[in-house]
Design a protein that fits this description.
The chain is of the alpha/beta class. The chain has helices at about 30-35, 45-70, 85-90, 105-120, 130-135, 185-195, 205-215, 235-250, 255-285, 300-310, 330-340; strands at about 1-5, 10-20, 20-30, 95-100, 125-130, 155-160, 165-170, 175-180, 290-295, 315-320. The strands form 2 sheets. A 5-stranded mixed beta sheet has the order 3-2-1-4-5, with helices on both faces. The protein has a 5-stranded mixed beta sheet with strand order 8-7-6-9-10, with helices on both faces. It binds 5'-O-[(R)-(carboxyoxy)(hydroxy)phosphoryl]adenosine and zinc ion.
């Protein structure tokens, strides 16, 4: 079944068409330029930007779906007059992110999904945004690549701007959360550190670049929060405070070298905690088959650390295979929805579906 998927959970207006794990079309409108000057996502601006663009992004995604299909199937007919209606004839269901995320942003996607489900009489599938990040390593391109197949159980780590969670996936769509952050998420911590350093937003990629220039070494030995605790939870807000005082104490004039070394040290601390807590989870669960999803795993240094970790335990690690799949996108939402559709997990009463800003996995 082909699925039209919508995600407006934060600051990306994203729409995709998928069939099983294959992405047939994918459009993402990032609002980074809108929020950049405020140093973070501003809810009302996000809502307005989603509202202004959602119709256009849906249209564009359906248009690309028709064009791609024409190329793939070598069809010769002319271009349709009504893109939306023609494309919707070939689509069986509509998937939408129900939560977690920004309430005012989520509601824009949900409203659009409901409208379309009613108009075209399609099944509606509600997806948890975090399920999307967990499944992101399995998303394939139009040609069905990469071919990686499922081999349960998995230990999944989500590292995004809003979440840091360790989850066991015993089989499709069955999650058991075994660890989570008690305060800031890993990406949020990187963003805040970048702000303290006077860098731009989002901070993760900027810190990655500076850290690499400083050889990814640790120069300041900042705290490794919660590393010694026996549980699998994370906490990054104390690290941010320690970083703040380090900057204040040194009254650092942030020359290039000093900034690079500070960025590198902060990144080392965050990543060491992520890797060592995951190692603890491997030992506790006996699962050495890892999945890592979310914006922070765009970071090549972190990928290397997780590859090393997996090989230390003779296991494997899978990451989102294409860069766009690390950040927010609707393709991963559509792929989860495909597995839900196989089990007929539809949302039957459209009027009941509502945003769930704090939706949990289990
Ligand atoms: O998954 P995502 O796009 O949005 C959420 O669902 O939160 O994650 C965004 C986060 C931001 O905190 C951003 O700084 C971080 O991912 N990020 C990175 C990199 N690229 C994005 N962190 C470290 N290194 C990167 N290359
Ligand atoms: Zn996300």
């Amino acid at each position: 079944m082909r699925i039209l998927a919508i995600d407006t959970s934060c600051d990306e207006t994203a729409v995709a068409v998928v069939e099983g794990r294959k992405v047939l079309s994918n459009v993402i409108f990032s609002q980074i330029l809108i929020h950049k000057k405020w140093g973070g996502v501003v809810p009302n601006l996000a809502k307005k930007a989603h509202e202004d663009r959602i119709d256009m992004i849906v249209q564009e995604s359906l248009r690309r779906y028709l064009i791609n299909r024409k190329i793939t199937d070598n069809l010769r007919y002319g271009f349709p007059n009504n893109i939306e209606e023609d494309a919707m004839k070939e689509i069986g269901g509509i998937a939408v992110t129900q939560g977690p995320g920004l309430a005012v942003a989520l509601e824009v996607g949900i409203k659009k999904a409901k409208e379309m489900a009613k108009k075209y009489r399609k099944k509606l599938i509600a997806v948890n945004h975090l399920e999307g990040h967990i499944y992101s390593p399995f998303v394939q391109n139009r040609q069905g690549k990469p071919k990686i197949s499922f081999n349960f159980p998995y230990l999944a780590l989500i590292v995004s701007g809003g979440h840091t969670e360790l989850v066991v996936l015993n089989k499709h769509l069955e999650y058991q959360r075994i660890g989570a952050t008690l305060d800031d998420a890993a990406g949020e911590a990187l963003d805040k550190a970048a702000k303290l350093l006077g860098l731009g937003y989002p901070g993760g990629p900027l810190i990655e670049r500076l850290a690499k220039e400083a050889d990814n070494k640790d120069y300041h030995n900042l705290p490794r929060p919660m590393l010694k605790s026996d549980n699998l939870n994370f906490s990054f807000s104390g690290l941010k405070t320690a970083f703040y005082y380090l900057l204040k104490k040194g009254n650092q004039n942030l020359s290039g070298k000093i900034t690079r070394e500070l960025a590198s040290s902060f990144q080392c601390s965050v990543f060491e905690v992520l890797v060592m807590k995951t190692e603890k989870a491997i030992k506790k669960t006996g699962i050495n088959n890892l999945l890592v999803g979310g914006g922070v795993i765009a970071n090549l240094r972190l990928r290397k650390l997780f590859r090393d970790l997996a090989s230390k335990y003779s296991g494997k690690v899978a990451f989102p295979p294409y860069k766009y799949l690390t950040g927010d996108n609707a393709a991963m939402i559509g792929v989860v929805a495909s597995f839900k559709a196989e089990k007929e997990l539809y949302f039957n009463d459209l009027n009941v579906l509502d945003r769930e800003p704090r939706l949990e996995l289990c």
